[in-house]
């Protein structure tokens, strides 16, 4: 079992029961000193089949639960496995440092890059420190500062998105959350260096898009990206937040949906059972996807890059002319 | 929908800050000063969806949501739908806004045929669009076109809160992007009047992408040193505030307008914070440095004319 076993996903119950039975049989066999390896192998094979069956048929709502899994890997865990020599930089130079959005310098396969992204906590204490990964305006202003720094020194930006939403709080409003989000979008849209965006968990509306404008947007298989949370949508539509699973279907927010809409360029497959069950494998898959994107982007000159970025966001909408 | 009971219009604050022209001193004049515009259309013929709720049955009288003053409808109309007693700014439709604002017959609509599709096959969305079309007489939530203000030619985008809460979906985004591109191409200034609950939920992620689409189009406008003035009216929130509306070279708000990123209810539910009176109102934003000025509806036309004139090409000295 991975390290996510204390957090129960409803749809994994049959699997957990099977895994529990395997443990029981193992203990029993050991106690009674009988060879039950044949039986164990048989049930283990059944567990793998069941796991595949479950994970190949996940509903959007189940994917969201995986995306929100408390043990889902966070940016700082990925950084060590994907990049070399990370140096974290702090602060927006205006108000304070926002621990919900981290950024810094690193090498990606010997290419110097600027990294930024939302940072959730890995436990309650860390989550309080990181504000559950929900940035205040100063977080986005730090991101803007680091992006412009990347532009100045002509290095690509790699941005990681995992956020329930930009923080909805009194102080955030007072300091211009809306302006900070919009400004970050503006700056990203015109940044004269390649930008690769990786959506690793939650893509919560404006708070995600604020650091989500890129030349290539990649997305983990069980991540989601939406204009509104399914709970929010359900409470508006059906006056009932518990209809979230229905709303999740309606909103078309899975990686596959977004690929179909042309909002993202690539879906990064996750290990069986989700990213939290195999951090290394997930990091490896992300690294490969970034590498492929680099190969495509580094061929383009700045003008082509900007023209294509503009075109992409210009043409994604769907409307009719009557 | 927003509840006007929440409106706390802080008069004292306005008086204190009232040294300049923009604030509420009109309220204290015995004879209100009107912006002179010649109406090219009979006011009574205009579509006014908001009216039905606020008016008394006979249609001759309206009641102010703020001070409960009963106002003869023609007086309210003449006062650009601002309460003559307390200065409360009624919400107005996009067509009313244009009528109150631009030189007679100068508005030429652009991109009138860009309309919403239903890309997600979202429950009740088609019905909502049909209903909004019926009540507003608009095809989409924003009117785009060119017009003149005191003879100055400009590109104008005006949102209508009556159209699915003024929300921005693909069609609204597309119309605004085309407007910004048109202005970039023809090198004319841009003015938008925002009023919106945010991005349009019914088009999911595609609505969110309109935030990026509109913002990047403004970047191109900026490259040509063309002025963009954003006017925030009640209410401007969510993804509209967090995109083009908060990126004006100059940002103006009407008095007492609700403007912000997150809704008050969401903030209270998430943070359990008590929100001070006047939170997220224009006056609050001015104090926090988020907008440039608050301008009464009656003076928006003349203010815009001054600002646009100031930014005319011939004024460029370098």
Question: What do we call the CATH topology of the largest domain in chain A?
Answer: 2-enoyl-CoA Hydratase, Chain A, domain 1
Portion of residues in beta strands of chain B equals 15-25%
Outline of chain A, from the CA principal axes? Answer: globular
> Order of helices and strands of chain A, N to C?
HHHHEEEHHEHHEHEEHHHEHHE
Based on the coordinates given, report the CATH architecture of the largest domain in chain A.
Alpha-Beta Complex
Helical segment count of chain A: 14
- Per DSSP, what share of the residues of chain A sits in E-state strands of 2 or more residues? 15-25%
List the defining traits of the structure above.
A: 322 residues, 2-enoyl-CoA Hydratase, Chain A, domain 1, 14 helices, 9 strands, globular, B: alpha/beta, 8-stranded mixed β-sheet, two-stranded antiparallel sheet, 11 strands, disordered N terminus
Structure notes:
The complex is a heterodimer of chains A (322) and B (318). Chain A has helices at 13-32, 37-56, 60-67, 75-82, 124-129, 137-152, 170-174, 177-190, 205-209, 230-237, 244-251, 255-261, 279-297, 302-314; strands at residues 84-89, 101-108, 111-118, 157-163, 195-204, 216-220, 224-226, 266-268, 319-321. Chain A has 322 residues and is an alpha/beta fold. In chain A, strand 5, helix 9 (205-209) and strand 6 (216-220) form a beta-alpha-beta unit. The radius of gyration of chain A is 21 Å and the shape is globular. Chain A starts with 12 loop residues before the first helix and ends with a strand. By secondary structure, chain B is of the alpha/beta class. Chain B has helices spanning 11-16, 51-54, 73-78, 94-101, 125-136, 170-186, 204-223, 238-241, 264-271, 282-287, 297-310, and strands spanning 61-63, 70-72, 108-109, 114-116, 142-149, 152-159, 190-196, 228-237, 250-253, 259-260, 293-294. In chain B, helix 6 packs parallel to helix 7. Chain B is globular and about 50 Å long. Mean pLDDT of chain B is 85; it is low at 1-52. The chains are: A alpha/beta (322), B alpha/beta (318). The interface between A and B is large, with 51 and 60 residues. Strand 9 (319-321) of chain A pairs antiparallel with strand 4 (114-116) of chain B, so a sheet runs across the interface.
């Amino acid at each position: 079992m991975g390290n996510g076993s204390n957090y129960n996903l409803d749809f994994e119950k049959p699997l957990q029961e099977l895994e529990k039975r395997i443990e029981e049989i193992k203990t029993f066999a050991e106690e009674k000193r009988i060879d039950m390896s044949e039986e164990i192998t048989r049930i283990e094979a059944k567990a793998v089949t069941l796991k595949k069956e479950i994970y190949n048929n996940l509903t959007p709502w189940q994917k969201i639960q995986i995306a929100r899994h408390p043990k889902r890997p966070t940016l700082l865990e990925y950084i060590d496995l994907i990049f070399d020599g990370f140096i974290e930089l702090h602060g927006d130079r205006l108000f304070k440092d926002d621990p919900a959005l981290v950024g810094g310098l690193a090498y990606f396969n010997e290419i110097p890059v600027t990294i930024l992204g939302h940072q959730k906590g890995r436990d309650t204490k860390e989550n309080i420190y990181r504000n559950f990964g929900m940035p205040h305006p100063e977080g986005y202003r730090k991101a803007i500062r680091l992006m412009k720094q990347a532009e100045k020194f002509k290095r690509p930006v790699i941005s990681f998105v995992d956020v329930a939403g930009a923080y909805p709080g009194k102080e955030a409003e007072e300091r211009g959350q809306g302006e900070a989000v919009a400004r970050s979008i503006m700056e990203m849209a015109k940044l004269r260096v390649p930008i690769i965006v990786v959506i690793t968990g939650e893509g919560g509306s404006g708070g995600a898009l604020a650091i989500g404008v890129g030349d290539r947007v990649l997305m983990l298989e069980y991540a989601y990206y939406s204009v509104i949370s399914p709970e929010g949508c359900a409470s508006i539509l059906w006056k009932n937040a518990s209809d979230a699973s229905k709303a999740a279907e309606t909103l078309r927010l899975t990686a596959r949906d977004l690929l179909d809409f042309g909002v993202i360029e690539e879906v990064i497959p996750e290990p069986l059972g989700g990213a939290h069950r195999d951090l290394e494998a997930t990091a490896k898959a992300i690294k490969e996807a970034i590498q492929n994107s680099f190969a495509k982007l580094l061929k383009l000159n700045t003008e082509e890059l900007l023209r294509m970025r503009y075109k992409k966001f210009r043409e994604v909408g769907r409307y009719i002319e009557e | 929908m927003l509840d006007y009971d929440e409106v706390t219009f802080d008069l004292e604050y306005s008086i204190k800050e009232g040294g300049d022209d923009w604030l509420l001193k009109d309220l204290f004049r015995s004879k209100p000063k009107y912006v002179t515009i010649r109406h090219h259309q009979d006011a009574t013929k205009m579509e006014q969806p908001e009216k039905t709720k606020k008016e008394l049955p006979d249609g001759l009288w309206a009641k102010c949501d703020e001070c409960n003053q009963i106002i003869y409808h023609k007086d309210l109309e003449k006062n650009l739908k601002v309460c003559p007693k307390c200065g409360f700014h009624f919400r107005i439709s996009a067509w009313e806004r244009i009528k109150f604002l631009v030189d007679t017959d100068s508005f030429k609509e652009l991109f009138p045929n860009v309309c919403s599709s239903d890309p997600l096959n979202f429950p009740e969305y088609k019905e909502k669009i049909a209903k909004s079309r019926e009540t507003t007489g608009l095809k989409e939530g924003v009117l785009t076109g060119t017009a003149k203000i005191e003879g100055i030619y400009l590109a104008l985008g005006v949102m209508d809160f009556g159209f699915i809460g003024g929300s921005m979906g693909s069609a609204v985004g597309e119309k605004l992007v085309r407007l910004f591109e048109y202005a970039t191409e023809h090198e004319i200034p841009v003015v938008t009047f925002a009023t919106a609950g945010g991005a349009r939920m019914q088009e999911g992620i595609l609505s969110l992408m309109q935030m990026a689409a509109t913002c990047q189009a403004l970047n191109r406008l900026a490259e040509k040193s063309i002025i963009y003035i954003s006017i925030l009216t009640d209410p401007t929130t969510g993804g509209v505030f967090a995109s083009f509306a908060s990126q004006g070279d100059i940002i103006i708000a009407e008095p007492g307008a609700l403007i912000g990123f997150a809704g008050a209810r969401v903030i209270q539910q998430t943070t359990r914070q008590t929100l001070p009176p006047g939170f997220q109102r224009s006056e609050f934003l001015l104090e926090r440095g988020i907008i440039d000025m608050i301008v009464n509806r009656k003076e928006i036309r003349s203010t815009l004319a001054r600002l646009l004139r100031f930014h005319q090409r011939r004024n460029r000295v370098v």
